[in-house]
Design brief:
Number of strands: 12
Order of helices and strands: EEEHEEHEEEEEEE
CATH architecture: Sandwich
Shape: globular
Strand content: over 45%
Number of helices: 2
Radius of gyration: 18 Å
Largest sheet: 6 strands, antiparallel
CATH topology: Immunoglobulin-like
Number of domains: 1
Distance between the termini: 37 Å
Oligomer: single chain
Helix content: under 10%
CATH class: Mainly Beta
Length: 149
């Protein structure tokens, strides 16, 4: 079990249909149907000054996934242990995503940058996590000192 705090910076106007939060070992970004339905969506990981397009293969290798519900809302999940996550001592994780929404003609409609920091204070010593399109294995090695009398 872990406890978490999160800080979110969404570079977008309020009421734009985007919401992000920290959920367990993930950052979840939700887009309501007004943004998602009828538009093409390209997701990029922000890695410092670089933007890396998350193709389905790269997403599966790097701990990113996406799903849509029957009402047209879309959720994007980023593993805090995945690629392009700024990890500080396994306690603070900075996640950056750029969303590019395209209209039916392929023209670039709008770009949203989402930056979020999640902080966790406790981790399990061994974790195996299965997600929709990837699996993670985490192992924390504890050092035990033995003394003989």
């Amino acid at each position: 079990m872990s406890t978490s705090r999160c800080h979110v910076l969404l570079q977008r106007p309020k009421g734009s249909g985007l919401h992000s939060d920290c959920v367990g070992n993930l950052m979840r970004l939700s887009l309501d149907k007004a943004l998602a339905v009828g538009n093409g969506l390209e997701v990029e990981a922000i890695n410092g000054t670089q933007h890396i397009v998350l193709t389905p293969n790269l997403a599966a290798q790097c701990g990113y996934s996406m799903e849509s519900d029957p009402w047209g809302n879309t959720r994007i999940y980023s593993s805090l242990l995945g690629c392009y996550i700024d990890n500080h001592d396994d306690q603070t994780f900075n996640v950056g995503l750029r969303l590019r929404l395209f209209g039916p003609s392929g023209s670039d409609l709008v770009t949203h940058d989402v930056m979020q920091t999640c902080s966790y204070t406790r981790w399990a010593s061994r974790e195996i996590l299965c997600d929709r399109n990837y699996m993670e294995v985490g192992h924390l090695i504890s050092i035990v000192l033995l003394t003989c009398l």
